[in-house]
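Input chain follows. Return structure tokens only.
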Amino acid sequence: MRSRVHRAELGEFLKARRAELSPRQVGLPETGSRRRVPGLRREEVAQLAAISTDYYTRLEQGRIAASAPVLSSLARVLSLDDGQREYLSELAGRDATRPRRRTRQEVRASLRRVLDDLRFTPAFVLGRRMDVLAWNPLAAALVTDFARLPPNHRNYVRLLFTDEHMRTLYADWESVARTSVALLRREAAHYPDDHRLTELVGELSVRDADFRQWWAGHHVANQRIGTKTLHHPVVGELTLDWDTLTCTSDPDQHLVTWTAEPDTPTHDRLRILASWTAQHRADPADSGHDPWSSGHG
């Protein structure tokens, strides 16, 4: 029996995707009459996917499970990208008897050693639900002092929406935050019974209108590389390439690194920040220069 949670999420995902498409985008004629619902109607999706409207309606309502051919047809009709297709397949293929994972996640020792060896590269390890499991000193200097946060607050998505410093750190905070919500939505497909993830989503939905709206949009992402511009309070503007490396022995742990092109201002500023970090750690009493001495959410 398919998981009811996944069937309900699959239905909401399909509903959100059809709401984003116009008849013209899928080759249907525009009638000119006012439409009662945004995007495509259920019957239009069913027609294009060569299935009955009743079947598609029950699928959206989470009452039935879809076959692989139907999912493939719906993915084509709704113009899903590769990440969205994977997400759709995961929602349709998970079993309700999947065991819950409630044990505390610990960073792999090998990843911890990698972090310790990266002196000039900010890096941290993300676990399930995008919890920050470990970090090196330069990552703390670049992003925030994770050690000052309670363990259950060391979550990257939570920081983005509750820490005002994060909103000023990222030059394009909205894009970063939207992507993080889409990544978290993907996590929810992996672990629908994760009570901590449910609590996190509930907390952020109450605290932040943007999170509430973006979560309701049911967008998913599978982004593993990118470029970010940061406005750092110590060294100024940084343009960094970030990469995500997945641990083969535990695919739920991801090493995120931030690097800069050699012989660029950002490359030089990272080294200045590394030197500042080493000096600051050597003299912890000198807290007056700590840009994160204010409270966190």
